[in-house]
Recover the amino acids of this structure.
């Protein structure tokens, strides 16, 4: 009888322990799943944030390009209007290197044209003399 009781007790305790370990395992798996899903959602949030920041950056870049294009158009209009005023164009300082170079070329052409005209006049004067 005594042995049976002891065996029964051992069996009960073993069952309880198994039950506890099963519950702990289940809890652990749930925790892991929660952590995994959390990290997955966190990753998705991070990626969404990156995409959002990238889109905002692209929009800002497009706005900058539009502003530069407007500036260039305005400068082209100025170029057409102020072909004669060479010195003023050189004095204008802009961040756009291309336009500065273009202005210099225009000024050089004008100067060359003026010099050529002077030379022609001198040649005509010499021929007349």
């Amino acid at each position: 009888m005594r042995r049976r009781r002891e065996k029964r007790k051992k069996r009960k305790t073993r069952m309880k322990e198994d039950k506890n370990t099963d519950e702990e395992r289940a809890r652990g798996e749930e925790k892991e799943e929660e952590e995994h899903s959390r990290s997955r959602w966190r990753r998705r949030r991070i990626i969404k944030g990156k995409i959002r920041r990238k889109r905002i950056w692209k929009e800002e870049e497009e706005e900058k390009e539009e502003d530069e294009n407007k500036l260039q158009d305005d400068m082209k209009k100025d170029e057409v209007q102020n072909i004669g005023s060479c010195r003023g164009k050189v004095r204008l300082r802009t961040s756009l290197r291309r336009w500065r170079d273009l202005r210099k070329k225009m000024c050089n052409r004008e100067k060359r044209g003026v010099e050529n005209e002077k030379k022609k006049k001198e040649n005509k004067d010499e021929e007349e003399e």
About this structure: The longest helix spans residues 2-81. DSSP finds three helices and no strands in the chain.
